From TrEMBL:
Residues 4-105 form the Glycosyltransferase 2-like domain. This is Glycosyltransferase 2-like domain-containing protein. GO terms for biological process: spermatid development. Keywords: Disulfide bond. The keyword RNA-binding does not apply. It comes from Diceros bicornis minor. SUPFAM superfamilies: Nucleotide-diphospho-sugar transferases. It holds the Pfam family Glycos_transf_2. It comes from the Eukaryota. PANTHER family: INACTIVE POLYPEPTIDE N-ACETYLGALACTOSAMINYLTRANSFERASE-LIKE PROTEIN 5, N-ACETYLGALACTOSAMINYLTRANSFERASE.
């Protein structure tokens, strides 16, 4: 395989349909700030009828079970002259559909090669971007349709890989807050997650901030949801 050589890497799931003028907003944002990873707003393509349905403006988030979810955008983010076209600061990305400067992607460690199959890599990359000096935004002016293959995520091998991958993230990035995860899923404490030495060293080398910093500055709503 030939390594990517463009200045900007654009990741797209195979089951996507891009909308009009979807790429320019992503490239423009990265040209202004090479340490900004950007995602389009993801519209829904019905997997039975292939009907294209626009999504409201949302941001990416997750809970202490490490399940990704879409979250409402605060009204103040829509205020101002740009209104609903304004870039949205997003605590997390859905994964598989984003653009990033190639040199920056290499610098922050690409994907964790110790992860398996599918799942969990989106949250790990999101935390790494925010905690290591980057930014993650959703750009409502860029729209990409996506077929949600709901049945795939329930396959046992996918579930197993998702737990394994998520645990790698927990042990590298969550600091003392990993206890919040184990509180809800105590069985995960004894599950293997492979060798994370290289990723721990990467975090040190990049001089990344703490997960406490991430909670305080990027996603305070997660800490207030400790009961859930």
């Amino acid at each position: 395989s030939v390594p990517a050589s463009g200045d900007v890497l654009v990741f797209l799931d195979s089951h996507c349909e891009v909308n009009k003028v979807w790429l320019e907003p992503l490239l423009y944002a990265i040209a202004k700030d090479p340490k900004m990873a950007v995602c389009p707003l993801i519209d829904v393509i019905d997997y039975m009828t292939l009907e294209y349905q626009p999504s409201p403006v949302v941001r990416g988030a997750f809970n202490w079970h490490l399940q990704f979810k879409w979250d409402n955008v605060f009204s103040y983010e829509m205020d101002g002259p740009e209104g609903p076209t304004r870039p949205i600061r997003s605590p997390a990305m859905a994964g598989g559909i984003f653009a990033i400067n190639r040199h920056y992607f290499n610098e922050i460690g690409q994907y964790d090669k110790g992860m398996n199959l599918w799942g969990g890599e989106n949250l790990e990359l999101s935390l790494r971007i925010w905690m290591c000096g980057g930014q993650l935004f959703i750009l409502p002016c860029s729209r990409v349709g996506h077929i949600d293959k709901q049945r795939v995520a329930k396959q046992p091998e996918v579930t197993k890989a998702m737990i394994y991958n998520s645990l790698r993230m927990v042990h590298v990035w969550l600091d003392e807050y990993k206890e919040q995860v184990f509180l809800r899923r105590p069985g995960l404490k004894s599950v293997a997650y492979g060798n994370i030495t290289e990723r721990v060293e990467l975090r040190k080398r990049l001089g990344c901030k703490s997960f406490q910093w991430y909670l305080d500055n990027i996603f305070p709503e997660l800490e207030t949801s400790k009961g859930s």
